Amino acid sequence: MPGMSRTRTILLAGASGLVGRELLSGLLADAEVEAVHTLGRRALGLGHAKLTHHVVDFKALPPLPRADEVYLALGTTIKVAGSQEAFRAVDYEANLAVAKSALAAGARRAGLVSAMGSNARSSVFYSRVKGELEDALARLGFDALVIARPSMLAGNREALGQPERGGEKLALRVTQLLRPLIPADYRSIAASDVARALLREVPRASGIRLLRSSEMQAR
What residue ranges define each of the domains in the chain, with the CATH number in brackets? Predict the structure, then answer.
């Protein structure tokens, strides 16, 4: 009927991470979201009437529930993963596998948590993998693909049971002290700001939309 809101069903990979947890919180609070299906290698430890968590092997995903949108927030570091190959298995292969399965499940809109400096031709391995993923997703043919490229993420990793990343805590303190002198795209950004920008743009975007860090900063 005219005037009635359309409800949406969402797939979310990486709900246990800094941005992923903020995405999940926003999705569960959205009256237009009917159901959220999260995907992870371990139990999520959360309960909600809208939420269904699926423990999966990202190398052999089962058919996913029908969905309208997919949010890709899987990520690690080479130090945590243990090798470049293990890093690529998460940041590239797992995210791409979810995207392909989400398309098969009907999702036509996607949001990706990428990183500033992502470029498939970069000489930096981390940035190159991020860029290769962006390019691979762009070729899949989503009606809308929103790519968030945040600078250094600020958030409480310890509260999520994640190890602090080397030098990150000190770097965040320094960037906060020097914030007025740092160009907007290079300032640290709250994970909640990144999530908020994706939740705003994915439902309304068309084609490929790139979000720079400065565009996502809370005003």
Answer: 8-212 (3.40.50.720)
